[in-house]
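Hallway conversation turned thread

IA: we were arguing at lunch whether anyone had actually written out Leucine-binding protein domain-containing protein end to end. Turns out nobody had. So, for the record, here is the sequence (152 residues) and right after it the structure tokens. Reply here if something looks off.
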Amino acid sequence: MTRQYRELGMDSIFFLGGPGWGQPGFHALVEDSVVNGVSTITDFAATNDEAATQNFSKEYMAKYGKGIDAYAAYYFDGVSIVLEALKVAKTLDREGLKAAFKDVAFDGISGKIYLDKEHNMDFVHRVCTAVIKAENGVKTLTDVKFVTFYDE
């Protein structure tokens, strides 16, 4: 869509891409002209300055040779919260695990994960807004701003 807007000379129209637009996997699939200057809002960015995110990012880069994206963080957090619940569960049956999840709050890569009042997993996370800069095949997030978001 952004390509068509630009081909029609509609460069002045503000374009906001969804969460996937801020992820390296998407950047690898598109030409610079498609995303350069486009704003994105996402609930995870590797540029998050929190220590847990930066440590995970360095370890991930060392092991896999590429930067983390939201999906790597979500999977890591998902497995980690299950492991935390297994550690504190008094029994490994349905009721024991249910009780363990109720009591576990986990500070993960994507934010603090907890069970809400309706017994749904939720998390306090930092929403990221950014502008994509694309030049010579390299896409970076610029003008990055984080806002802590949660629902109580």
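OS: looked through it. The beta strands are 16-17, 39-42, 106-107, 112-115, 121-135, 138-149.
IA: good, adding that to the notes. The chain has a mean pLDDT of 84.
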